[in-house]
Design brief:
The complex is a heterodimer of chains A (172) and B (58). Chain A has 172 residues and is an alpha+beta fold. Chain A folds into 2 domains: 113 residues, Beta Polymerase, domain 2, CATH 3.30.460; 54 residues, no CATH class. Chain A is built from 8 helices and 7 strands, in the order αβαβαβββαββαααα. A 5-stranded mixed beta sheet of chain A has the order 1-2-5-4-3. In chain A, strand 6 and strand 7 form a beta hairpin. In chain A, helix 4 packs antiparallel against helix 5. Chain A is globular. The mean pLDDT of chain A is 93. With 58 residues, chain B is mostly helical. Chain B is flat, with a radius of gyration of 21 Å. The model of chain B has no long low-confidence stretch (mean pLDDT 85). The chains are: A alpha+beta (172), B mainly alpha (58).
């Protein structure tokens, strides 16, 4: 297993136009800001180039690029370097914004684009499962969030009520 | 919460913050070690259960 071998492939795919802008989200994205936590897969959020004259988004170019290089499809994932990698086009305006505002971090000399801590926490709030709430609690515990930026995201994406509910649930 | 519990909690949080501040490459390497350790535990078969007939009281 070697996550660090996946990032150069993603950068190359972006450079060759196989994919548009990409950024790491999910648990692996959170690890860039927090301590390591267990996860089984790598979520790669990305924009996809549309076919000429069409608007249909398809993952086919990704498969066409990766399968000849020895990577194998596993359900909705592609197994790369022992990791289940899921390529996910943004499904909400919040994730679109997270992708647009993602930042570059260094992994052993390789640039890797990753969602900001504030966007990761806001997405966790929007998804709202127990483990997502646990992740938000970690962001708070680690003081990893810029309060002004986080509040701005919550306001613009109508997440303030969910935030209030989250805080109430943690106080009780 | 007792004083000892509070101090343990604080030292644990301090350690987690220390780990969180490590370079991303180091944290990802730690993650992969965690996953490998978990897989090694899963691959270890527990001992067979004792034969309940043999150990049943008379």
């Amino acid at each position: 297993m070697a996550l660090e071998n996946i990032f150069p492939v993603l950068n190359q795919m972006e450079a060759e136009g196989v994919i548009g802008r990409y950024a790491i989200g999910g648990a692996v994205g959170a690890i860039f800001w927090l301590e390591p936590m267990h996860t089984k897969d790598l979520d790669v959020f990305l924009t996809l180039p549309t076919s000429h004259g069409g608007s249909l988004l398809t993952l086919t170019p990704i498969y066409d690029y990766l399968l000849p290089r020895g990577y194998q499809p596993r359900g909705q994932h592609i197994e790369m370097e022992g990791w289940l990698v899921e390529f996910v086009p943004p499904g909400t305006p919040l994730v679109e914004e997270a992708l647009a505002r993602a930042v570059t971090r260094d992994v052993n000399g390789v640039p890797v684009r990753v969602f900001t801590a504030e966007h990761l926490a806001a997405i966790s709030l929007q998804v709202g499962r127990e483990r997502d709430h646990d992740r938000i609690a970690r962001f708070i515990e680690h003081e990893a969030l810029d309060a002004a930026k986080f509040d701005d995201i919550l306001q613009r994406h109508q997440l303030l009520e969910k935030w209030r509910q989250f805080r109430r649930s943690r106080e009780s | 919460m007792t004083e000892l519990e509070r101090r343990l909690r604080e030292s644990k949080l301090a350690w987690r913050k220390h780990v969180a501040a490590l370079p991303a490459g180091e944290k990802l390497r730690m993650l992969e070690e965690m996953i490998a350790d978990t897989r090694a535990i899963v691959a270890t078969h527990p001992p067979k259960p004792a034969n309940p007939v043999r150990f049943s009281p008379r």
